[in-house]
Amino acid sequence: MRDLRARFDFRASEGVPAHITVLHPFVPYPVPGTSLDRLEQLFSSCDAFEYRLDSIGRWPDNLHLIPSPVEPFVALTKAVWAAFPDYPPYEGRFSDIVPHLSVAQGGTELLDEAGPLLLEVMPPSEITAVCREISLLVLTGDAWEVTGRFPLRQPPSRS
């Protein structure tokens, strides 16, 4: 998957790791300490959750993996947006919040080339993961960097 993103997603070369966006754009760099404190407080009240990447989606300029369930990601986006109302998701360009992990970005030919390759590297069942923290990625000049990590509330351990 990493090789596909490196080849077909220009954001990978800018330092953006594979991710599912919670809110973009966000407070410009440098992010004030008060905003970081608010994010820490907000995310510490959100539960960690399991999810799967088990299907592929495509828009005219984007090939992506779709998380399931989507509801926890949508809830995180809505919570951050409510805390920072000056920053609607994708500047309000879209009516729906559609969580996704971009694999390829570009024109039709590029996505047509990337699509079959993505199918080849997808595991036979699905990719499973646990969202335990939210990372704050910011453009610090020429590259994107993780400038904050916010743990989500961990469920009590089962005995």
Description:
With 159 residues, the protein is of the alpha+beta class. The chain has one domain: Cyclic Phosphodiesterase, Chain: A (Alpha-Beta Complex), CATH 3.90.1140.10. It has 5 helices and 6 strands. The protein has helices spanning 2-8, 10-13, 33-44, 71-83, 108-121; strands at 49-59, 62-68, 101-105, 127-131, 133-139, 144-151. The strands form 2 sheets. Strands 3-2-1-4 form a 4-stranded antiparallel β-sheet. A two-stranded antiparallel sheet has the order 5-6. Strand 5 and strand 6 (144-151) form a beta hairpin. Helix 3 (33-44) runs antiparallel to helix 4. It is globular and about 45 Å long. The chain starts with a helix and ends in an 8-residue tail after the last strand. The model has no long low-confidence stretch (mean pLDDT 95).
- Taking the alpha carbons of the first and last residues, their distance comes to 36 Å
- CATH C-level class is Alpha Beta
Domain module tally: 1
Task: Name the CATH superfamily classification.
Answer: Cyclic phosphodiesterase
Report the radius of gyration as a whole number of Å: 16 Å
Strand order of the largest sheet: 3-2-1-4
How do you describe this structure in short?
The protein has helices spanning 2-8, 10-13, 33-44, 71-83, 108-121, and strands at residues 49-59, 62-68, 101-105, 127-131, 133-139, 144-151.
